[in-house]
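Structure (tokenized):
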């Protein structure tokens, strides 16, 4: 019955393919519950769709929290999934505010998402979230013309995920907008090196 209930939540969230959420699934193993969430086109401008998904997401988050807390013993990775959901919820809040045209609220939620992600443990590498929160903050800050915060956010993302190409490009754009051409050029040099290395591995 538990599996049926959770799968029905999954189906309710997936529905038709839309720009906001492409895939949500739950895997239930012995003594563990795994949540997989993939956002595609997180910065959709479909306010009503985003609001509906946020409500559905909160319902799923509550159910998952109850399931994890009901286990005889909470595994560290299950608790980490709950932390991950808190980050994603703030990102969805930011997306909703973005669709409403409220840039101040958008950035507030994006900052909170980045803060929460930064508090997640790094014991087995950077914490996995579907849309890296510092990168999202950087992109939203760029869009709002807050280039100093954008540069700081992309720099933070590069500390969390070294040489991430999207963060390097974002940092280059932010530094260029701030008039720091040397820093922008250096970020693009690193970007080209990463891409060239990836191409070499593909050829091999």
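Design, position by position:
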């Amino acid at each position: 019955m538990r599996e049926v209930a959770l799968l029905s939540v999954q189906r309710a969230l997936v529905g038709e393919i839309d720009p906001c959420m492409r895939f949500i699934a739950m895997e239930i193993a012995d003594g563990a519950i795994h949540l997989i969430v993939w956002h595609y086109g997180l910065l959709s401008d479909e306010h009503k769709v985003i609001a509906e998904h946020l409500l559905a997401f909160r319902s799923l988050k509550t159910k998952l929290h109850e399931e994890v807390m009901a286990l005889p013993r909470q595994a560290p990775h299950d608790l980490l999934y709950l932390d991950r959901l808190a980050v994603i919820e703030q990102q969805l809040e930011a997306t909703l505010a973005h669709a409403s045209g409220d840039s101040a609220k958008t950035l507030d939620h994006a900052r909170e998402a980045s803060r929460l992600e930064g508090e997640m443990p790094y014991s087995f590498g950077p914490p996995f979230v579907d849309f890296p929160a510092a990168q999202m903050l950087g992109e939203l800050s760029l869009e709002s013309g807050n280039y100093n915060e954008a540069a700081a956010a992309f720099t933070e993302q590069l500390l969390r995920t070294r040489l991430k190409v999207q963060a390097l490009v974002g940092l280059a754009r932010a530094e260029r907008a701030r008039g720091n051409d040397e820093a922008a050029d250096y970020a693009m040099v690193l970007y080209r090196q990463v891409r060239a290395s990836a191409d070499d591995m593909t050829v091999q």
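Reviewer-requested clarification: Helices lie at 2-14, 47-70, 76-100, 103-118, 133-144, 147-160, 165-177, 181-203. The beta strands are 21-29, 32-39.
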